[in-house]
Write a structure and sequence with these properties.
CATH class of the largest domain: Mainly Beta
Structural class: mainly beta
Strand content: 25-35%
CATH superfamily of the largest domain: Copper binding periplasmic protein CusF
Strand order of the largest sheet: 1-2-3-6-5
CATH architecture of the largest domain: Beta Barrel
CATH topology of the largest domain: OB fold (Dihydrolipoamide Acetyltransferase, E2P)
Largest sheet: 5 strands, mixed, barrel
Number of domains: 2
Distance between the termini: 61 Å
Order of helices and strands: HEEEEEE
Number of helices: 1
Amino acid sequence: MSQFHVTRSGRIALAGLAIIGSLSILGLPQTSFADNTAAPAATAPAAAPAAPAAPAKPAVAKKKVAAKKKVVAKKKVAAKKKGHHGPVFVGVVTAVNRDSSPMTIVASRSLGKKGGDIVFGGDITSHTMVMKGRKHISAKDIKSGEKVVIHYKASMGTLVVTGVSVR
């Protein structure tokens, strides 16, 4: 595929140049063309007569078509749900200290065959989103023994819980 767009009149001009080039390669003396339609002026007597060039079609001026504006429909971007990105801890609630300020939650998980437990402790603030299924619940409704998924972030030397999902 060519990178360039060649119009019809350009193709005719290229065809004429190709014919002139082929005649000059044949070595015909004093071959000249006034335009693409003229026959050779003089040929050698021993040479065969050259075929006349194809008549060129007159160039037709094309009307410029007004450029159409492309109407691009803007995609409606759905409001992003408040997602919890970052570290996650999955385990069972061991204790919830409702009396402390800020409220704290302790959860643990077993390492299975490796032996031992991993214990997580974090602060529950007023910005913590606590959910059971798809319903929002109060942080005070979390009971020990429930399976939870805890989303958290490190802030000022402590682990702050950003979301708790009760299973």
